[in-house]
Amino acid sequence: MKFTIGRLSFLFWMILFCLFSTAPALAQETLRVSVSSQVAEAYGKGILPLFEQRTGISVQLYVGPSETAIQRLENGVSDIAITTIRLPNILKESGYVEIPFCRGSIAVITNTQCTLTQPCNINNLSIQQLRDVFSGRISNWKDLGGPDQRIITFVPGLETGAYRNFKQLVMRVKEIKYDFLTYQSTMAIEGVRNIPGAISIVDQGALPRDNSVKIITVDGLSPTEKAYPIYQIFSFATKGTPGPLAQATINFGLSEDGIRYMKDKGMFPIVE
User: What is the reported pLDDT for 28?
Assistant: First the structure.
């Protein structure tokens, strides 16, 4: 009998040990976040790890086009989306919440070379010249004051915020024509970096810091200037009132740490 009681007692304490030793892992909270690739590079990959460190909340990050981030929110596989496109009115009317928090410039970038032997000597383009380049009306750098070299256009995917915002602010009724279409907007950086004569657009906060691409001013303004004419708005989006985890990341993004990070990346916080 004593042997039996001892065994049962041992099993009882082992079960308690296992339960309590694994409790923190089971209790750890996970926030499911869907972001566009531009948001990931300009904001998410820097601020979300800091959020995890400060709050102890684990972040499960999905990166894709802005439209896909919103779709994941609709389908219930994300607690919060951070995008550069506005929520459709039908979702807002259904109770979805949108919180704009930052303005980011859409930078125009080119390869540092117009040809294999000639550097890119174009430093500034007007809005009209950009419209002509991305509509196909201008297709050679010589028509912009550069060497005789065909312009190679890289354009972010049709579902990306960069594509939609650039089309609205620059192209107006003109259709965008391109040589290469990338699934994620940040993939255009790689294309421009590797092909002489290439041009594209990308969020200022996602730009590489190694001078591997050339940044073109627009109408004489740099993307780091607040008056720069091509920009997009970063927003938090939730399905209804933000839950505790989503609200925690919103609060952190609008905190002093979040605002400081945005400014360091060349973006402009909407709330300071």
Answer: 57
| Contact status, residue 81 vs residue 72, Cβ threshold 8 Å | yes
Q: Are 31-104+233-269 and 105-218 in the same CATH fold? A: yes
Structural contact between residues 100 and 250, judged by C-beta atoms closer than 8 angstroms? no
State how far the Cα of 243 lies from the Cα of 22, in Å rounded to an integer.
25
DSSP 114: S
The CA–CA distances, whole Å, from 258 to 140, 145, 209, 269 equal 42, 42, 20, 9
- Read off the pLDDT of residues 218-249 as tens digits, 9 standing for 90 and up: 999 999 999 999 999 999 999 999 999 999 99
Q: For 197-217, what is the mean pLDDT? A: 91
Contacts of 50 (CB under 8 A, 6+ apart): 252, 257, 261
CATH fold of 31-104+233-269, please? D-Maltodextrin-Binding Protein; domain 2 (3.40.190)
- In angstroms, rounded to a whole number, what is the distance separating the alpha carbons of residues 258 and 268? 11
- Is 70 exceeded by the pLDDT of residue 3? no
Domain boundaries defined on the chain? 31-104+233-269, 105-218
| Domain 105-218 homologous superfamily, CATH | Periplasmic binding protein-like II (3.40.190.10)
Q: Report whether pLDDT(187) > 70.
A: yes
Residue 213 burial by CB count (10 A; 0-12/13-18/19+): exposed, middle or buried? buried
Residues 200-223, mean pLDDT to the nearest whole number: 92
Q: What integer pLDDT is reported at residue 272 of this predicted model?
A: 54
Mean pLDDT of 205-215: 88
Q: What Rg do the C-alpha atoms of the chain give, in angstroms?
A: 24
